[in-house]
Write a structure and sequence with these properties.
By secondary structure, this protein is an alpha+beta fold. The chain folds into two domains: 3-46 and 212-336, no CATH class; 56-188, tt1808, chain A (Alpha-Beta Complex), CATH 3.90.1570. It is 26% helix and 32% strand. The protein is built from nine helices and 20 strands. The strands form four sheets. Strands 1, 2, 12, 13, 14, 15, 16, 17 and 20 form a nine-stranded mixed sheet that branches. Strands 4-7-8-9-10-11 form a six-stranded mixed sheet, sandwiched between helices. Helix 8 runs antiparallel to helix 9. The longest helix has 18 residues, at 24-41. It is elongated. It starts with a strand and ends in a 5-residue tail after the last strand.
Length: 341
């Protein structure tokens, strides 16, 4: 099995590749949304490949029309984004306007469409999405103009609007002249992060929570790394650790990767937890042990962040919540880090 070996911050002159950083506010959000959301409330689920069974050649069938695109393609996208027919993140079908006109300058324009979906978050419209037939133009022309007119109507007033013809998903911002994203539907999985960052409920209400760095595990998987691939970190900082449940602990850290950072979760059990404590300085070990005995079962090591060596494998679980997708690394062993003179 191929291995990936990272030399830590103190040896950057040798490799110049990997280091860690402790951005505590970002790590705190990462911990809350990834670990506690999944393990406590079970809001996470294994990610399914979208449209795995869908035969895209059907889009060439003249009888495959707008209503089919809406049900077969648009609705699953909205469901994966976290919208439901009821609740806080609500998809509303075919909402008509009491006065279907809008003024653009001094010109009164009639709105001839009723978009397939108005997406609301906490009873406030945030986005409209309209399905079109596979041969309809969703990048320019009357379809885009009508969607814009509906989006700016006084009864709606949303910033973002989108159209999907089964082949592509186009996303627009009413403040910008051209589209802000075009995504091929048959490549939706590869570009899901873009869709999520533009159209998800959290993107439309709390975009600051999306300033997470890309996930290390997802990055490696997309780069072609096989599940179970071993990764060695020499050393790695432990800026934050949490007890998720009786036999599950996690370390959250941003790992320097080239010129950017990747958010990383290291998961491990009670055996590895005891191993970790034995590898750390006495004061850090004591602080962690005491902190994880009581709520909120997490410890931030903001001063003198300890360092250890970590041997881990790329996990088999791929998880999703309303904020992101991620793949934890599974710790096989912690080793004491001996600083070189």
């Amino acid at each position: 099995m191929e291995r990936v070996h990272f030399i830590g911050a103190r040896s950057q002159k040798t490799v110049g590749f990997c280091s860690f950083v402790a951005n505590f506010s970002q790590l705190f959000y990462c911990l809350l949304t990834r670990r506690y959301g999944y393990r406590v409330s079970n809001n996470f689920k294994e990610v399914d490949v979208m449209f795995k069974e869908f035969d895209f050649s059907i889009l060439n069938d003249l009888e495959y029309k707008e209503d089919a695109v809406r049900e077969d393609i648009v609705k699953p996208i909205l469901t994966k984004l976290g919208y439901t027919p009821s609740g806080n993140n609500k998809m509303i079908r075919s909402r008509s306007l009491e006065h279907p006109f809008v003024y653009i300058g001094s010109q009164k324009r009639k709105i001839n469409i009723i978009p397939d979906y108005v997406l609301e978050v906490s009873n406030s419209p945030k986005l409209i999405l309209d399905a079109k037939g596979p041969n309809e133009d969703i990048l320019k022309g009357k379809n885009v103009e009508q969607a814009f007119s509906y989006a700016i109507h006084p009864d709606i007033r949303v910033r973002y609007y989108a159209l999907c013809n089964g082949r592509q998903l186009s996303i627009f911002d009413v403040t910008k002249r051209n589209h802000i994203a075009i995504i091929d539907v048959n490549e939706l999985d590869e570009n899901w992060d873009t869709v999520h960052r533009l159209l998800s409920p959290i993107a439309l209400t709390k975009p600051e929570l999306l300033n997470f760095k890309p996930d290390y595990g997802m990055y490696m998987l997309k780069a072609g790394a096989p599940r179970g691939q071993r990764h060695h970190f020499e050393p790695m900082g432990v800026p934050m650790i949490a007890k998720v449940e009786d036999n599950l602990y996690t370390i959250c850290v941003n790992i320097g990767f080239g010129e950017d950072y990747l958010a990383t979760s290291f998961d491990f059990g009670k055996k590895e937890y005891k191993q970790l404590l034995s590898c750390l300085p006495k004061e850090a070990s004591k602080e962690i042990r005491n902190g994880l005995r009581r709520q909120p079962y997490r410890v931030l090591l903001e001063e003198n962040t300890p360092e250890v060596c970590i041997d881990a494998i790329l996990g088999s679980g791929r998880y999703s919540n309303e904020n992101e997708e991620y793949i934890p690394l599974i710790v096989e062993r912690f080793r004491r880090y001996v600083k070189q003179p």
